[in-house]
Design brief:
single chain, about 350 residues, mainly alpha, Farnesyl Diphosphate Synthase, 2 domains, 16 helices, Isoprenoid_synthase_dom_sf
Length: about 350
Amino acid sequence: MSLLTSVDTRLSRVDDFSALFDAALHEFLANRPDVAPELAAELREMVRAGGKRMRPRFAWEGWRAAGGGGDEDVVVRALVALELLQCCALVHDDVMDRSTVRRGRPTVHEVFMMRHRRSRWAGSARQYGDSAAVLVGDLALAWADDALVTAGLSGAALQRAWVPWQAMRVEMMAGQHLDLLGVARREESLEQALRVAALKTAAYTVERPLHLGAALADAGPDVVACLREFGRDVGVAFQLRDDLIGVFGDPAVTGKPVGEDLREGKRTALMALALSRATNGSAAVLRRALAGPVNDALVERVCGLLVEIGAVDAVEEHIDVLVTSGLAALDRTALDPEAKRELVKLAGKATVRKA
């Protein structure tokens, strides 16, 4: 008996999607050939280190909201692809941002860099670490495709799923590039920051996973449209919440240093709003923080300014507007009532104010 089939997968008895999904995920990882053992081992470690499994969960509820149908085991196996795509994005993102911690452990490029130094290998340890991490991210993307294609979907279901899957991968990369451009060009536009949020986060975190789930259920265009609208709004709200956490988050909860986004010079909607409201003096402080380097004293000063000039309150208000708009989209067509309730709960968990 497989790990997946040992879990009760009947919808009426599923109380914990994460347990069901993790069984499928670990079964998939256990069956991967170790052609590149060091890369595969690090990818497996990253998966086991945690993660919210948000993307598979939104896809699952999208499938249920559209009426479900088909083999539930197969659907869960297909959704493994989403978590592996997330690992690809995180590994590459950490290299670009020079992040040193992810999920409470050293980032992948740091792990390989330290291994190079301990072993006294030839060449640059940093270059080796970055290069190996790029390959781990590439492996995650290859395995993501494998998970979707080998899940056991019918030809018609796979063809339907391929449309959002293909779009999601490209949108994720486009959003990441816009993020890089924002830093390089010293962008201060709120419109540009929200565009990055829509592509880099909303599309591949909420909108496209919902679209993928609906496609697996062979949903009609009205259902797909309302789920995608909900996903866009809630996804951007989620990124705005993440912007706040990236500055004010507790390292014990986030697994990252306090003020991580400031230390990385990220041009977020929070910073764009702050700059649009700042006086000349406070704007100079904010721009100095974005330009780096940043120490703890500067992080503390910027945090105070963000509150003082009303940028934090403005972001909170925008989150509320987006969540309200997204929830209204769910009322525009008939959806499975239980799944709809779960989507409302997920929207709340993804965007709620953190103490």
